[in-house]
Fold this sequence. Notes:
The chain is mainly alpha-helical. Helices cover 55% and strands 11% of the residues. The protein has a two-stranded parallel ribbon with strand order 1-2. Strand 1 (58-62), helix 3 (68-73) and strand 2 form a beta-alpha-beta unit. The mean pLDDT is 91.
Amino acid sequence: MIIAEKIKQDWNQRAQHHALFWIATEDYQTEEKFAQSGKDTAWALLATLSGLHHASWKVLDIECGIGRVLKALAPHFHQLFGVDVSSAMIA
């Protein structure tokens, strides 16, 4: 089996089993904790940019999972795009 196919298969199985757990193993217990972990990551990314980002930017999140961080970044950018190897995560 080609490694890319194995990775897709593995992540699709994880998504079907318990997507929140596999994305954020420390913050999967409730949807509120999961969402807050996405906000925390988004704020950390924005802090790294030190105010240099612009609302007109387009953002690409590679390996976005179910969009935990993209949801939190949405108010700060013009367009957001997420891609993931797992079609089950995207769904």
